[in-house]
Amino acid sequence: MAETKKEATKPKTAKAPAKKATPEKTEAKETKTTKVETTTKKGSEGFAVIETGGKQYRVSVGDVIATEIITDKGEGDKVTFDQVLMTGGSAVSVGTPTVKGASVTGEIIELGKGKKISVLRFRPKSRHRRKIGHRQQFAKVKILSI
After folding, report:
1. For the chain, what are the domain ranges?
2. Region 78-83: what's the mean pLDDT?
């Protein structure tokens, strides 16, 4: 008969990684107080949050935003946004749901179409495929006043 030899296996022990010796910090950090001038972002002097086309935009005077197409308007026409949800600046006022008496006026500077999106419709097991393209229309509006 064949004899089987059992090899003696040593249990493996996991060794902890050696810690690096770090010198103790005995020096105290000096704290310096300096006056920091706060820089304001563009348009933080006065801004408004408006709603148009089912979307909300944070705008300030001079901003150019791309919104959904506004019907019955052409390039160069003035647009008034009455759905002002919030106005800010030195005093912040939040509407419930809109701020009463607040409006934002702008001018349409460009009408156009966005990038083309390909839509592929596929029905399995019927050899049915249909490819459709779509370009969303937009209007670029420059904000004149809040």
Report:
1. 47-145
2. 92
